[in-house]
Amino acid sequence: MTRALPWVIGAALVAVPFVYHEPYPLHIMVIILIWSLLYTSWSVMGRFGLVSLGHGGFMGIGAYVLALLWNDLHLTPWLGFPLAMLATAAVALLIAYPCFRFRIVGHYFALVTLALSAIVLQVITATRDYTGGSLGYTPSSYRGGSSIYALQFTGKETWYLIALGAWGLGLLIRHLVDRSMLRYALEAIAEDEDAAAAAGVHVTAEKLKITLLSAAMTAFAGGLYCQYQMFISPDTVSGVAVSLQMVFAAVVGGIYIVIGPTVGAIITIVLGETLRIAVGTAAVGWDNLVYGILLVVFIIFLPQGLVGSLAGKWTPARR
């Protein structure tokens, strides 16, 4: 029964857009799925002690590269996605390799990646002739509305299925990482780099693998967000605030559980929408305040996250 449960849940999720067509709830579900992919992308490396605050920069690079390739070169997103992911991976390599090579770890690594988020935000804002700056940037609409070539669709149902597939792919990648030898190498590195190196683990190479994978996944999710919203701005897809939001959601949901970041996404998105509807424009910034308070509470009382703590209680009960 337990093994069949994921398949039952998956079938139910696939069936949603065929039996339910209300635009606003479907929109919220699409946003939750895209941000779940983003949070999962961060947790792929965050769970091994590689605390990155630069994923807001990776998301911004992925979103803007995809949109610029479409608007300026009329390059289909089917080619734009791989190029955006390669560009993001190149930036991640440029930042991560010196850090890992010279053993910049812990809070020093977090500070370096924090600077990356700030730099990407400033570059996007400063190059307003190309990116629109702080006013935002809109990908050109394809003539005729919906188009597979342009990856633009007017129906929420189509986007729900696309986002659901992308989210499922992200969970699969996270699952495969957890079942691979890379996991054991990174766990050994997190415990003691010198001991791992003495045991034959190539510390720099293993860290780079997981960092590039996480950055590429984040860029893909950023591009998907751009294609769905058809509008991006520096504040919504890049910067320190976006990076901190990823950390918060992953920690609240549970970094060490595959489904944890998804639960974090549900909490953050629903909380933000509830505040917006209940309070209106007066709630601007309140969500970040609530995020910060909840983050402190969860770190103190539920360090394994919501799902991780519940799983810890459920396992002894079953035994």
Number of strands: 0
Content-based structural category: mainly alpha
Form type = globular
Calculate the mean pLDDT score and round it.
88
The helix-strand sequence is HHHHHHHHHHHHHHH
- Which consecutive residue ranges, at least 5 long each, have pLDDT under 50? none
Strand content: under 5%
Estimated helix fraction: over 70%
Question: Radius of gyration, rounded?
Answer: 20 Å
List keywords for this structure.
319 residues, mainly alpha
Q: Summed up, what is this model?
A:
By secondary structure, the chain is mainly alpha-helical.
Report on this model:
With 319 residues, this protein is mainly alpha-helical. Helices cover 76% and strands 0% of the residues. The chain is built from 15 helices and no strands. α2 packs across α13 (260-279) and α12 runs parallel beside α15 (305-318). 39% of the residues are buried. The mean pLDDT is 88.
SSE layout:
Elements: H1 5-19, H2 23-46, H3 55-73, H4 77-101, H5 106-126, H6 128-131, H7 156-178, H8 181-191, H9 193-198, H10 203-229, H11 234-237, H12 240-253, H13 260-279, H14 286-301, H15 305-318
